[in-house]
Amino acid sequence: MSAPPGLGVQEVALTRRGLRLARFTIGYNVVEGVVSISAGVAAGLVSLVGFGIDSGIESISAVLVAMRLSARLRHGTVDETKERRALRLVAITFFLLAGYVLVQGIRGLVLGEVPDASPVGIAVLVASLVVMPLLAVAKRRVGLALGGDPLILADAAETRVCVLLSVSTLAGLVLFQLTGAAWLDPVAGFVIAAFAIHEGIEAWHGELVESDDDEPDLPVEGGH
């Protein structure tokens, strides 16, 4: 199949790689979200439910990336107005996530609710700590190789946020099981809310892009 107008052979290969990463993200996060929310509801863990909702948000971001890359492969162009509208929709979902976690966390603290332990939740978070860093690096490589593609780099940044959320949520769950301190779960939820608000603001302004200053530039290899 010939490359669409404006795309070279190497750019087509990179775009297809980005599309595969986006599709993997969608599938993985749907499973992760369902398991996390189910385990969180069963155990009464606010932070785990919030983590599952965040997985859904990341799936939305990956869908947007997949749509853009598919359009690029077909036509070589993308509707920037629709892309901007979609980014603002993602920002709104971040704010909804923050609101949910804050309300539930405050409710848990006021009522003194004690959650159950969740080995399944811990297993999901450990898996996320293995998969997500690799996925974030792979997305960023593609974004930089495509000349600093904003939406792909934004998606990479969101995946990296998922890693940070995994760390904070896992720390809250493990410390709860070790100490029995029920307040640790709402506090971990508040950390998620802070991340969500920050990323929501950046997404709204179209600034959810990682800085290139913290990592060296990577060579572009069309054969990989």
Structure report:
With 224 residues, this protein is mainly α. It has one domain (9-206). The protein is 78% helix and 0% strand. The chain contains 6 helices and no strands.
Secondary structure elements and pairings:
Blueprint: H1 9-43, H2 46-75, H3 80-111, H4 119-145, H5 150-179, H6 184-204
| Helix percentage | over 70%
Strand content: under 5%
Global mean pLDDT:
81
Number of helices: 6
The biggest beta sheet, please?
none
Strand-pairing-aware structural class:
mainly alpha
Ends distance: 19 Å
In the residues, how many domains can be counted?
1
Q: What does the radius of gyration come to?
A: 19 Å
Shape: elongated
Give a quick summary of the entry.
The chain has 224 residues and is mainly α.
Kindly list the characteristics that best describe this protein.
224 residues; single chain; mainly alpha; 78% helix
